[in-house]
Specification:
4-stranded antiparallel beta sheet; binds zinc ion; alpha/beta; 10-stranded mixed beta sheet
Length: 561
């Protein structure tokens, strides 16, 4: 043996001994009582004093993914919390009213009863708006007397007030249906934008805070505003795309003095909504005592901008940059007041771009819906085919974004059967139609559970089906078929059962929490049970369609009772 090799063996000997000991480890442990490291039960965090529930109207998971790296304001704070990039508005009718109805009730539209923004009422012989009291003779679907009467499920705020009447339940949005569906039945203040200012339910007084906000907004609108500048990261989407005889893609929201008409299609309506929320916090002393309050804020401009200019132009890029700042201002105002709050942010539905730009951007099959598939087109064809006509009217109603089709009132049973059969046959062979369902078949199906991305089309439709309000026939268009004839205020929409309309981010944040990213799919019906658990509100099983999500990445479990 060379002396060098001998030296190596000597050096290795203690290591070999150590390895043997390690291998023998378990038998040593058997001889001695195991002493696991001290595992103190993680203590439950004190209840937050305020739930801040934020909805961004039409904020798809796709938009969130596209822009999240650029956020520096309120979104950036939320990104340090629990981030679920794949939340699902699991149902098929991805419209504003159904979507907002799931956010704080924890149940699908099949239980909230809010199956679409409007539905046809055969007894009244007219459309009824989801947030309308149609019993009031002054109410119409277009100019409704706003009401919560159609919401069949309690909201989190309702349950909090039931448990303790001192809890405050407050909501504000530019849209009445958003504020109504997030707050529910037992409310302390509910405000929405109506033409020239924030207003509330008939018979309630517009408070001092709302009057002050309206005066401030008047001043802002009367002054007008220069065009907004686009951040450098908007460069890629900053190009004009023709739609019929106008273009989208480069608008920067300049405001003429006194222009109330387009104000709510600009980021400024979101800033006003955020300011109004802060005024309500002060007026009602939200988050000040140890009874938790809930403040719902639904920001509508993303939806108005999406409808008018699509999702892939400089308009949406500017809108999201401005909204990021607005959210930052709202959070900073709560911080300044020393309020301990838990925030959640999600959306009522996603969205898709205008088909003309989708075609340019690598989605060649995107197209506008065939006018033959509108209520007018279908009625005309069915009447011609069956010989069944209605004086001064159509044999069918609906066929809008939600896909519900209602037969008109006054048809005999035989006529109803004939119209339905003709309708089913016509829709089944249309190249833009993916599937057609009847109310009778849907009513026999169970409401689906489990991972929402795996649901069949029929299951998605079932989750927004309510026998009292849904159509007799439901038509689902193929992926990338966009309803509506475009005009400069309206170039695209949502409402389909496809994931671009169903997938929305779900973000939770509270000061001091351990954040994480979880791409496993979750549902917007999980939000209510999750927040209920955070504030220690126990409800009987079966209350929710969703489940509690543990939103703290540390060993603390926010679902543990
Ligand atoms: Zn919406």
């Amino acid at each position: 043996m060379s002396s060098a090799l001998h030296a190596l063996r000597v050096a290795l000997a203690p290591l070999a001994c150590a390895l043997m000991l390690a291998t023998a480890g378990p038998s040593i442990a058997q001889d001695q009582p195991a002493t696991p490291p001290p595992a103190a039960e993680p203590s439950r965090a004190p209840k937050p004093r305020l739930i801040l529930a934020i909805s961004i109207d039409q904020f798809s998971a796709d938009l969130f993914a596209q822009y999240r790296e650029h956020f520096t304001g309120g979104f950036a704070r939320l990104l340090t919390g629990a981030v679920y990039p794949q939340g699902f508005q699991s149902h098929a009718a991805t419209e504003t009213c159904p979507g907002h109805s799931t956010l704080l009730t924890g149940v699908h539209p099949s239980r909230t009863g809010i199956i679409a923004n409007t539905w046809y009422d055969p007894k009244l012989g007219r459309d009824v708006y989801c947030a309308e009291d149609e019993r009031n003779p002054g109410s119409t679907a277009k100019e409704p007397v706003v009401s919560n009467r159609h919401l069949k499920a309690p909201t989190l705020g309702d349950l909090m007030k039931q448990a303790n009447p001192a809890a405050m339940n407050v909501a504000v949005s530019a849209k009445d249906r958003a504020a109504v569906m997030m707050s529910g039945h037992q409310t302390d203040a509910v405000y929405w934008w109506l033409g020239k200012g924030f207003t509330t339910y008939e018979g309630r007084t517009v408070s001092r805070a709302a009057l002050a906000q309206n005066a401030a907004t008047d001043k802002l609108i009367d002054a007008g505003a220069p065009a907004l500048s686009a951040p450098q990261w908007c460069e890629k989407v900053d190009r004009a795309v023709p739609i019929k005889d106008f273009t989208i893609g480069t608008y920067r929201f300049p405001q003429k003095a006194g222009d109330y008409k387009t104000f709510n299609r600009t980021p400024r309506i979101d800033a006003a909504t955020g300011d109004m929320a802060v005024r309500l916090v002060d007026e009602l002393a939200l988050g000040k005592d140890d009874v938790t309050d809930v403040l719902s804020v639904s920001f509508s401009a993303t939806d108005y901008v999406g409808h008018a200019y699509g999702t892939e132009g400089v308009e949406m890029c500017i809108q999201l940059a401005q909204l990021d700042a607005t959210l930052g201002t709202l959070f900073a105002a709560l911080d300044q007041r020393g309020i301990d709050y838990v925030a959640v942010l999600s959306a009522d539905h996603g969205g898709i771009d205008a088909p003309e730009r989708l075609q340019l951007n690598g989605f060649p099959s995107a197209q506008r819906i065939d006018p033959a598939l509108t209520a007018e087109g279908l009625s005309k064809a069915i009447s011609q085919e069956t010989g069944i006509t209605v004086p001064n009217g159509q044999v069918i109603h609906g066929a809008g974004a939600s896909g519900d089709i209602w037969l008109t009132s006054g048809l005999t049973v035989k006529q109803q059967k004939k119209v339905t059969q003709a309708l089913l046959a016509r829709l089944a062979k249309h190249p833009q139609i993916a599937a057609v369902y009847t109310a009778a078949a849907l009513a026999k199906m169970p409401v689906p559970h489990g991972t929402p991305q795996d649901w069949t089309m029929e299951q998605r439709v079932r989750a927004s089906f309510d026998p009292e309000h849904s159509g007799q026939v439901l038509m689902m268009t193929k992926r990338g078929v966009v309803p509506g004839d475009p005009n400069p205020a309206y170039t695209t929409t949502h409402g389909s059962p496809w994931d671009y309309d169903r997938r929305v981010p779900m973000l939770f944040w509270r000061k001091g929490m351990t954040g994480f990213e979880q791409p496993d799919p979750v549902e917007t019906v999980d939000i209510a049970p999750t927040l209920a658990s955070v504030i220690g509100l126990a409800e009987p099983s079966g209350t929710w369609d969703g489940r509690c999500l543990d939103i703290d990445g540390s060993r603390a479990d926010t679902c543990r009772r």
